Amino acid sequence: MEITIIRKAICWILLFICSTSFYSYSVPQDMSLEEAEKARKEMVEYSKQFVGVPYVYGGIDKNGVDCSGLIYIVAKESIGVQLPRTTSALYASVRVVADDKKEPGDILFFKTVGTKISHVGLYLGNNQFIHAASSGPNTGVIVSSLNEEYWKRTYIGAGKFLPSGKEIEQVANSVVGETIDTYSSEKNSFFSNVLLEGTLTGDWQFFTADDFLLNWRGVSLDVHGRYLGKNIQPGVGFSFSYDPAMEVFKMPLYVSLSLDNGIRVYAGPVFSIGTAVEPGTANQSEPKKVKPSIFPGIFGVSWQSPSLDVGSAKISFVQDIHYCVFNDSTGAALPFINSLAAGLVFSTGFRVTFPMSNFF
To answer: Coil, helix or strand for 55?
Structure first.
């Protein structure tokens, strides 16, 4: 008798858990357009209350939230829908929609770490979304734009858990004033995908053809533009530098390919002004003259650190190594060590990046 009662109790408990879970994760799909629009608007409006809440891993209240926790608590408290708690479970539970079909109240997914989906945000409209950021210059719950370089590069797509409603126009415009960081979507789409970069470096080397000796190789100013592709970003640029060790001005023009991890490779012709001498011989009675090569000219690779946001610009640390081709005064190739001493240069400095759409 007692066993029968226990079995029945277990069955009822399991039935209750199953029905509760089904209720929690199911969303009415027979909403009218007006009801769907209202639900989406309520979510968006409620989410604004969390702007400024700190990031706390596992948090689901106004004392702190993580990215999926923000989606979880906003959906639960604003429209009574309990969504899955983790990023991967959220992605598995939504219906992926075409990017041009996303609506305010949809969930946006990002790959910020490795190859797995690792970040989510709530779409507000006008290419803006609210999310809980764990790193970067601004952490906690903030509003960001899909037009920003980082989010544009890591964005995967949008998912829908509510029925489609009428578009809620200009929702994001009234969010939080200065916390909104966006590039105008009304500007030319080509220019919104182009970044301009200015880099200032100190150039150096640690040997000459005869000695291991730290050499100051001058200062370089570089201007570069790159187009934001999904993985590889093509670009063009030019530099202007003075090399006191060789007593020559160098002006490389180059094409480049930049990768998502901050690495860039580049190559192009080099134009020069002045009579170049081999490093370490400038103070000799008869300096060894060398002849710069226009083409082939320069080959290089650089690494750029994660950036720090300063207004609409981003500042990064840069380390570069490049090689310029020099021959002897007759045009013949230099000995290997002499060639390295003349052409191999390290550059260390800072890069400022900003969107071209600021000007067009």
So the answer is: strand
* Residues counted in the chain: 360
Confirm if 50 and 74 have CB atoms less than 8 A apart: yes
Active site residue 322: no
Q: In whole angstroms, what is the distance from residue 219 CA to residue 342 CA?
A: 16
Tokens found for residue 268:
């192009």
Rg (CA), the chain: 29
Task: Out of 11, 131, 224, 322, pick the active-site residue.
Answer: 131
For this structure, is 67 an active site residue? yes
- The model's pLDDT over 264-286, given as tens digits with 9 standing for 90+, comes to 999 999 999 999 999 989 888 88
To the question of pTM greater than 0.70 for the whole model, the response is no
The pLDDT tens digits of the residues spanning 297-326 come to 999 999 998 777 675 677 889 999 999 999
Q: 58-82 burial string, b = 16+ CB within 10 Å, else e?
A: ebbeeebbbbbbbbbbbbebbbebb
